[in-house]
Design goal:
alpha+beta, four-stranded antiparallel beta sheet, 4 strands, about 45% helix, globular
């Protein structure tokens, strides 16, 4: 993601509000959306397996399909430039060879390290309990989701994370394998038409301690 100064970061954070209505005339090009998603994927992930998957829902047909699955967020669906459905890939290790191979090609990892790492990880993932895998994927997908929202803000767009939707139906509705792709959240993106609701945060003294 683009490096931010302290002032820039403060502006990004202070701009976070709960957006309910967007300017429906605003569209985001595929090129710019690709850039935003690319910046989001600079987020860290466990052993760099990058288990996040994005479904960018922007067409009238796509939004019509999403609308009944997000009944309590109709305005965001209708007025946003897009709604990004974030999924976690429970079979992310299937990309391990590709990921580590690219690292070798880029000169970021010696071939022998790649082979050793893949050997160890193959055994690890073969015996990984499903609940541990799920928890790891959710953590990584949460990291990329926040990074996506910050990247969008750096591009001048507003976002809103949405957790209230039919998670048990969305994968199949869009032709995805529901046993492999774990719904994490929806993120609406666009230009806010209304200021949105501000909120308060607990003081650091309440939520942090030093030892």
């Amino acid at each position: 993601m683009t490096n931010l100064s302290n002032n820039d970061f403060s502006a990004v954070i202070s701009g976070r509000r709960s957006i309910r209505k967007y300017d429906a005339s605003v569209k985001i090009s595929k090129e710019e959306m690709t850039q935003i998603l690319t910046e989001a994927t600079l987020a860290p992930s466990s052993v760099n397996m990058q288990p996040w998957r994005f479904l960018v829902i922007e067409s009238p047909e796509g939004k019509a399909k999403l609308a009944p699955l997000a009944k309590f967020n109709q305005t965001q669906v209708e007025t946003s430039a897009a709604v990004i459905a974030v999924f976690g890939d429970l079979d992310s290790f299937s990309y391990a060879e590709t990921i580590y191979g690219l690292a070798v090609e880029a000169g970021k990892m010696p071939q022998e390290v790649k082979e050793a790492q893949l050997g160890r990880l193959s055994g690890y993932y073969a015996n990984l309990p499903a609940d541990v895998n799920k928890d790891t994927v959710l953590i990584d997908a949460g990291l990329v989701s926040m990074q996506l929202m910050l990247a969008a803000r750096a591009h001048g767009y507003d976002t809103n994370p949405i957790g209230g939707y039919e998670k048990d139906r969305i994968a199949e509705a869009f032709g995805m394998d529901k046993d492999r792709y774990l719904p994490v959240m929806l993120i609406s993106i666009g230009k806010a038409a209304e200021e949105g609701y501000a909120s308060v945060r607990l003081p650091i003294e309440t939520i942090a301690e030093w030892k």
